[in-house]
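Q: My collaborator sent me two sequences in one message, no labels, and asked for predicted structures for both. Can we handle them in order? The first one she listed is below.
A: Yes, handling them in the order given. First sequence, followed by its structure tokens:
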Amino acid sequence: MPPMDHRIVVAGYERAHASEVAAAFEVFGAAAFYLRRAGRPDGYAVELRTADGAPFASHGGLVMRPDGALRDVRGTVGTLIVAGTFGLPPEDDEFLEGLRGVAARSERLVALCTGAFCLGRLGELDGRRATTHWLYGAQLQDRAPLAQVDTDPIFVRDGRVSTSAGGMAAIDLLLDLVQEDTDRDIALACARGLVLFLRRTGSQAQFSAQLLGQLATSDPLRELQEAIADDPGADNSVEALAAHLHMSPRHFSRVFTREVGMTPGRYVEHVRLDAARRRLGETDLPVESIAAELGVSAATLRRLFLTRLGVSPTAYRERFRTTSGPFHVRLVS
């Protein structure tokens, strides 16, 4: 349960992502609602702060009115959240010194998207695993050389510091924090209330198979991609897939590779890898059972993990069931 005085400070600035600022209010607001409905104290109080306390315009032009300046925060803070932006956040002394003061009195530090650059400037990522939007991973590593930057997972939690990828990954991380504070039922209630298709774990990759390649332009191939994703355990051999489209295997392979950017076999492997990662992160099923669901042997699944991620399925599950310690997985296309 969150303590009754769990205070959440969201740090905003000119051109910050409105969606990430709003996500903190929406997710913790939903948690408070479902906790109250369950007859439990909600414990959350969320406030928005900027360097000087003045209103600011988000990247999309939405004007936001903060509750005050970062420098005026007093008392203990449960969670400090730094929103991200397109490009890099501000590096002016007033904003960073305000963050430094709040960070020193915060139990948890959270950076969404490129907000990680701010924590990097404060030295809070030193010696820790961290992620950010995949576009900015190399820059973050350059600017925070003592951090262990990994742009594969959608979020990383290492001790009191948590970082997320861009976009909707912010919600996934915030829901994980809600689960830590409360329990799985409340986190799932929030996810359902927010009409999320799936509450993703940090083990999810920023690139799904569909994003790693591309969606085909022709309807039949695009529908075939959807069918593979819907049932990765089916007979997805080149021969079977080609038969669906009434093509010869050779012609099908050429067309698929041209449209999607990878061979059918490689695409099916990535879809199965995505599915296995979800199952390992969200269930306690044995590796053998997960492999059977995906239509491969446990040995084949293990080879796929070792080849693509450099780690076994068991080690992958163990790492992403904990919240600390250095570890790297790198997706190989």
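Q: And the one she listed second?
A: Here it is, processed independently of the first:
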Amino acid sequence: MKKLPYLIALLLILSCTKDDPKLTPVLTWATPSYIAYGTLLSTVQLNASADVDGTFSYTPDFGDALQIGVDQDLSVEFTPTDLDKYSSMSKTVQITVVPGSSANFNANLTYGTLTDVDHNIYKTITIGNQTWMAENLRTTKYRNGEVIPYVTSNDDWKGLKTAAYSSYENTTDLEKIATYGYLYNWFAVSDQRNLAPEGWHVATDEEWKVLTTFLEGESVAAGELKEAGSLHWNDPNTGATNSTGFTALPAGRREYTDGSFINEGYNGFWWTSSPYNPDYSWYRQMNYDAVFVNPANFHKQYGFSVRCVKD
């Protein structure tokens, strides 16, 4: 009878030992930044960590490409090396995939990246002592987050003297917008709320001159600036090599007289931030059948593309 309390105590100890829960690892995984469509998942996005040794299994996995969309799930299953001591764990984060350009960039060059207030992701390229956006601007907001008016009506656009932007022929095709960018009137370019992302600015007339001078002058510079081939430029796309990586595209323009859209595939027009007089401002033009970069000035109501330069 004296052994009974001892046996009961032993059974209690064994019972507690058997039911002791496993330890829970601490699993850490920060929400990834937005990525452009076509970006393959890598350690930049799939980078969960734990406070104990183990293995990680991701869904989707390394090398997978996601479709365009907001808050898509990325999941990980973590298996500890010591399963006797630690429990397996899982975690899910969300990632947003934004449209990417279909432009034919120069694969022999190294591009940087830039993200604007709309989470659009752009390639950037250094040419001489300048760093340029290698894509046309496509923000819908000023730097402070305020919305730029989007104008579709031809009647509303013509003669407009306040800031506005549009897509060519009012397209809603996200890939096309990501490739060609938006068309802005000069009042959006000059707005004090800043069209350019933080740390950047719309290129001035002088900065365009620096660029073309570095490329041996306006009479030949377009050959090194235009996207090569006929994916977006109409034939013959004279002299286009894109050796600089600038990847100029023929986004056309929106007319100030009647609000119509013209010249996509044939011409590219880019505003500078430099006014010429109260009614006109400087811009640059490149053509499908020439290698010159034409400096000119025109009515501020036109809808042109925009390129930004790093401060």
